Amino acid sequence: MVVTFLTFPIVAEDWLQWRGSKRDGIWRESGIVETIPSGGLKYRWRARIGSGYSGPAVANGRVYLTDRLRDPDRERLICFREIDGKKLWEHEYPCEYADLEYGNGPRATPTVDRNQVVVFGTKAHLTCFDAVSGKLIWKKDLVHEYDADVPRYGASAAPLFHKDLLIAYAGGKPDAMMVAFDRNTGEERWRSLSDRPAYSAPIIIHHAGQDQLIVWTGDATHSLDPNSGKVFWTVPYECGWDVAQTIASPVHVDDRLLFLMGWGRGAMTLKLDTEKPVASELWKTRSKPSTLMATPVFVGSDHFLSVDGQQGLCFIDAANGSQLWSDRRPIGAARMGYAHVTPNADRVFIFNQSGHLMLGRAMTNGFESLGETLLVEPTAGYRAQGPVVWSHPAYANLSVYARNDRELVCASLAASDYTHSVAEPVRIFPVRVLEKFIGMSAARSLAFSPDGSTLAVGTMVGTVRRVDPKTGEAEPPPRLRGRQRNRSFSLAWSGNGKWIACAGGTEFRQSRNNSQTSGYVRIWNAEDRSERPELKGLSNNVFSVSFSPDSTKILTSDAHHRVRLWDAASGEPIRSFLGHADAVWSAAFIPNSARVLSAGWDRMARVWNMESGNNLAILRGHEDAILTIAVSPDGRLAATGSADWTIRLWNLDSLDQPELLQGHRGAVYCLAFSSDGSRLFSGSGDETIRIWNVGQRQTTAILRGHQSGIRSIALSPDDSTLASTGLEDPLRLWTLK
């Protein structure tokens, strides 16, 4: 049976705040696609932004978003024109994150009402602007002015407008957990509660003839008079080990309020009196249902959907909290999955932490998928377990708006935009899927031996295993001794096949690294597997490693903006190439010359004289970070892949204007030339691998099958086998001939 979500007559409306204009997470527009198109969505525009977890708000032809900028640390509100993504204005202010956990950026979605927009920063900066001009109206530093406690993961609860008030989850003292300000002057109008602040954004409901501000703190659930701060009722509901159990917003339906705890701590439903503002406990559980961070949504009035980090999408009986079914598909392959669920008529849009947008129907007998596509690719965001997208999307004007740490995108969901489709050059190649490389054993870097008989695989924890590309068989995983290694970013074989080098590290300060960041290059003898001493002086992520064609030198690039040349025999440094202004993601020797090439987050590639260390040329053109480079076997052509979704081809003899290769719909993370240089292989965050005819500058084939962004590819020396690995799914071996 299909059940319909609680909704109202369909009207066009903006997405003014956290979970939509009514703060109930429902999208009410019609004319929406019936299924997700197989070829993906059409992007109306993309705009470059900084990092953050906050979602966008859409109002009166404008889109508002907050982000974090670094060096120095500051937070920013940006206003874009809705029709084309043009930046209209921005405002930034200093905000020192220090050791804030998951310090990626602002959490709270901007709130828009009438002609004002308010933002709530990670360190409890509350700021009100004119929504059209961007003029500052008033601002508050709640830590300084109210002695506010900022939770360990940052202030997160989006403020809300009510009549002439702006109500904020301030976390202040004394008795200032909730504070209402005059929306025009910022003057305090009332304060209330002395509870521990958590992360749940408050809502306002109208019940029993009374507006009620529903607040969930680290200690209890409360109903306040939003006009005065007077407490109508309180029901204790205390967090145990961490206030991070309280993240989801309260959910109101009919005469009930649902509060869903995180981390397997259960749920509670309150029954509201119909005559006066009073509440009583209807039912309460201790473990399930639960959520990770997502706010549940009701299906009709008898069931609701929750997103459990381990079980996935769960269909719950609202009468008692019992679970009818669960389905992991909507949350993706992650061990601890997360997703936002947004109803539209009788369907739900689900946007998960892998950046996928799924459409489906939740029925009493299970979930029916109506297609999915990658909307934005996940980005790391100061999260040791790997890249994620945790921001809530906005739905307005037949479009979806979503962000990661690099860009804000607007994609059409209008049915009228998908009446015709254009076929892509997809070819089917035989492929073997190596399921053993998944989870903590997931592959992160790949390299074929010079004779093609062995594929080296670097894993998420820094171990290196060898695979027979003919059979797909892998040697047993090594036993980890001593401190656990971190991600392997790059692998390289020496040209004589004698040595294997692995580069990696972490930017996170962890106890297993003696509370320090780490970087490493480990080198093994390929025959007896003995390990040589590590290269010295590396203290943060080493993103690439390569051997010179004659195997006498090693080239590395790292997060400290350095490109370094090493003596392969002794492991001693020879020289550094200095000039990059940000992390250097890739570096390579240029065959048949005394030059090396490097590129990174400063959007530039640099050509260096290997003997003198002089910078010979700077290659500019990319609009975002360069994540990978490849040099043709004859040393005459270089390819650079970028977070701007493009590949550029450079003539290394003339260093003239590059040629542009377009087609990917995500960052290009890895590149490889064929042995004769006639073909180029590219792997992208859009979960595809493209094969390009270099001479014609055209895509000749698209390889599909990965369920997450491509992070590494390697081509066998005879061009017969392509190895590829995704962010969250198994290693694949493609037979090309």
Structure in a nutshell:
By secondary structure, the protein is an all-beta fold.
What does the model show?
By secondary structure, the protein is mainly β. The protein has 1 helix and 59 strands. Among the domains are: 13-142 and 390-422, Thrombin, subunit H, CATH 2.40.10.480; 431-735, Methylamine Dehydrogenase, Chain H, CATH 2.130.10.10. 1% of the residues lie in helices and 46% in strands. The strands form 15 sheets. Strands 1-32-31-30 form a 4-stranded antiparallel sheet, with no helix packed on it. A 4-stranded antiparallel sheet has the order 2-3-4-5, with no helix packed on it. A hairpin with a 2-residue loop joins β18 (251-253) and β19.
Strand content: over 45%
Mean pLDDT: 92
Please write the CATH class name of the domain at 431-735: Mainly Beta
- Runs with pLDDT <50, length 5+? 1-10
Please give the share of residues in helix. under 10%
Task: Supply database-style keywords.
single chain; 737 residues; mainly beta; Thrombin, subunit H; 1 helix; disordered N terminus
Ordered list of secondary-structure elements with their pairings:
Elements: E1 43-48, E2 57-59, E3 62-69, E4 74-81, E5 87-94, E6 111-113, E7 116-120, E8 125-130, E9 136-141, H1 142-146, E10 160-162, E11 165-172, E12 176-182, E13 188-192, E14 203-207, E15 210-216, E16 220-224, E17 231-236, E18 251-253, E19 256-260, E20 267-272, E21 279-284, E22 297-299, E23 303-308, E24 312-317, E25 323-327, E26 339-344, E27 347-352, E28 356-363, E29 366-374, E30 394-396, E31 399-403, E32 407-412, E33 431-434, E34 443-448, E35 455-459, E36 464-467, E37 488-493, E38 499-510, E39 516-525, E40 531-532, E41 542-547, E42 553-558, E43 563-567, E44 573-577, E45 584-590, E46 595-600, E47 605-609, E48 615-619, E49 626-631, E50 637-642, E51 647-651, E52 659-661, E53 668-673, E54 679-684, E55 689-693, E56 698-703, E57 710-715, E58 721-726, E59 731-735
Antiparallel strand pairs: 1-32, 2-3, 3-4, 4-5, 6-7, 7-8, 8-9, 10-11, 11-12, 12-13, 14-15, 15-16, 16-17, 18-19, 19-20, 20-21, 22-23, 23-24, 24-25, 26-27, 27-28, 28-29, 30-31, 31-32, 33-59, 34-35, 35-36, 37-38, 38-39, 39-40, 41-42, 42-43, 43-44, 45-46, 46-47, 47-48, 49-50, 50-51, 51-52, 53-54, ...
